[in-house]
Amino acid sequence: MGKSKLMLFDLDGTLYLNGVLFPGVIELLEKLRGAGLRYAFLTNNSSIGPTDYYHKLKDLGLPLTPEDVFTSCEASSLMLKTMGIGPEIYVLGTDKFRQFMQSEGFVHSYENAQALLVGFDTELDYRKLTEATRLVLRGLPLYASHPDPICPVDLPDAGLLLAYFKAAKPGTIVQGIAGKPHRWIIELIEKRFQVHRSQIIMVGDRVNTDMRFAVNFGMCSMLVLNGNAQPELGDVKPDYIVPHINQLLDQFWPDNLAW
Ligand SMILES: [Mg+2]
Fold it and tell me: How far does residue 203's CA lie from ligand 1's centre (Å)?
């Protein structure tokens, strides 16, 4: 096999939708494994941590190990630690995201928070929104696990909250974003798998996160449409555009493309 060593898959919209796998996904992973090409899974979703994601994928029938999974939760921890933020932070996120950050040494606090970290909060309520708003009005630095405004299937996501906070206090700047298309996850992946970014094939369904992430860091980029119309590409030019994920089994199979 060519220079590629790792196939990196986005999850939502790429391998499944609404919790249902697209046809051919398990066969594809088994074929990759048989060919000796490693694969890993990457999601910007920060509503559950990597261990929960591992179990979720296992339950779907995907062949994987816990170390094959990356989420924007780990990226958030690495970003804040590298930037010297914390340990007291306000985590606007689910209980699972708060627990994950706690397991990484952060302390969720309203009174003593040094920064606000915004995640995909599927448990958002008025009290949390009020607390976070007050912290922004107080001028606390704002960070996010990822930038997506809407996640499949039309659920309001972290990026919409960032827009809300910018409206709450004009001039508010987001100081750091952890997930795709930013650099933190790629550093985790390179370290864990001992690969260079140029040896990674990034497979995803979103132009502004998955494909921009691949292009930003010199990975091979593969956009899968899975039945959707081709989205606006703008300045992002994917190396390959694949109508359905199961076509990676044949005409878009890495050997066929001489990777
Ligand atoms: Mg996706």
Answer: 9
